[in-house]
TrEMBL record:
The keyword Transmembrane applies. InterPro entries: AA-Vitamin_Transporters, EamA_dom, EmrE-like. SUPFAM superfamilies: Multidrug resistance efflux transporter EmrE. This is EamA family transporter. Its main location: membrane. It comes from Pseudomonas carassii. Keywords: Membrane, Transmembrane, Transmembrane helix.
């Protein structure tokens, strides 16, 4: 089942916006800590819309709570915390795309989608790039990369949940699951930081924080995941996931434009390996078909001789 042009355009647009989102997060982190930034993002995703949009039909509270906890705390709290601890927006956008490996792996394990030798080769490229970056990184950067990889795992589980449960009312699903994100993030904040992060709310929010919260709530989450989750529900993971390759490209470009993030030659090579690995992995079916089509004439020629 090929993706329609309309769906392809929507998917490309969303992934480009997601890449820019990492720089928007960095903007918010200038005046807010990651706990509060994440909490406010999901609070405004849910409130006040939850009072006007009914709970999605056919979706249990357990599914909403599970998705909300993984999406709000497991994915975005983890990314914000990694960036707060020094991981750059560009690097964060690259390593979050390891969710593609995890998503297709879960789909193969639970939904029967096939993984071939080309998939394995692509993974080898990406892992080589990851190891190269880890070897040349400071301990603080390595810790941030680990956090983002955990976030990538959480995102892949969210993708799997959408594919399995296939919620029909996607906007309602995102709004109501965001409501369940709020208490989990609130609990993490109070347990680890006490009430100190909330002091900035009393003092007032800077315009950078307000813009970051609004962009993350309405553009990145409600619009972005409305499109993405509908595509995940409609098409196989191997058709949708390749679009995420655009996230680190736009993420690195936005980080360069807004924060003048400059990569060393070694970092550029390592990220290049990661991107090549992701590209090979996510286009494995097309590459396998191309190899088989080239082998077929040779096989017929050898039989003729």
């Amino acid at each position: 089942m090929n993706m329609s042009r309309r769906d392809l355009f929507a998917g490309v647009l969303v992934t480009v916006l997601w890449g820019c989102n990492f720089s928007v997060i960095e903007l918010g982190l200038k005046t807010l800590d990651p706990y509060l930034l994440t909490l406010l993002r999901f609070t405004f995703c849910a409130v006040p819309l939850v009072f006007f949009i009914r709970r999605p039909a056919g979706v249990s509270l357990a599914v909403l709570a599970g998705y909300g906890a993984m999406f709000g705390a497991g994915l975005w709290w983890m990314v914000n915390f990694a960036m707060y601890n020094g991981l750059s927006p560009g690097m964060s956008s690259v390593f979050l795309q390891f969710s593609a490996f995890f998503t297709i792996g879960w789909s193969a394990l639970f939904l029967g989608e096939r993984i071939n030798a080309v998939h394995v080769g692509g993974m080898a490229f990406a892992v080589a790039g990851l190891l190269l970056i880890l070897l040349g990184s400071e301990p603080s950067t390595s810790f941030g990369i680990l956090l983002v990889l955990l976030a990538a795992m959480a995102w892949s589980l969210c993708n799997l949940l959408v594919k399995v449960k296939r919620p029909g009312q996607m906007m309602a699903f995102i709004i109501w699951s965001s409501l369940f994100s709020v208490p989990v993030i609130m609990l993490l904040t109070v347990v680890t930081q006490g009430t100190a992060p909330f002091a900035s709310l009393v003092q007032g929010l800077a315009w950078e924080a307000l813009f970051s919260i609004a962009f993350q709530s309405y553009v990145t989450t409600l619009l972005g995941y409305l499109v993405w989750n509908n595509l995940m529900k409609k098409y196989p993971a191997t058709h949708v996931a390749p679009l995420s390759l655009l996230v680190p490209v736009s993420g690195l470009l936005a980080s360069y434009l807004f924060y003048e993030e400059v990569l060393s030659v070694a970092q550029g090579l390592a990220i290049g390996l990661v991107l090549v690995g992701i590209a090979v992995f996510l286009n494995a079916q097309s590459l396998s078909a191309l190899v088989l089509s080239r082998r077929a004439p040779r096989s017929r020629a050898s039989q003729g001789n």
